[in-house]
TrEMBL record:
Region annotation Disordered: where it falls in the sequence: 28-65
Any Pfam family hit: YjzC
Ranges of compositional bias, category Basic and acidic residues: 36-65
Name by which UniProt lists this protein: YjzC family protein
Length: 65
């Protein structure tokens, strides 16, 4: 079983680091303009995203197009 990589509002950060918003569809053609980036400590609660269709993902794992 793999480790969870996308998080929603209210989830707890599994590790410290920088997290960024990603689109739910994860399509090559779906780019997010000015995604939010947040610094989290282990156990911090993820805040609301800018859009209901977005999720949080650790920045080094987020695909940039």
């Amino acid at each position: 079983m793999g480790e969870q990589t996308e998080y929603e509002k209210g989830d707890k950060a599994p590790n410290p680091g920088i997290y960024t918003e990603v689109g739910e569809a994860r399509s090559f053609h779906t780019q997010i303009q000015n995604p939010k980036r947040i610094e989290m400590k282990k156990g911090d609660t993820f805040p609301e995203t800018s859009n209901k269709d977005r999720k949080w993902k650790k920045a080094e794992k987020a695909r940039v197009h």
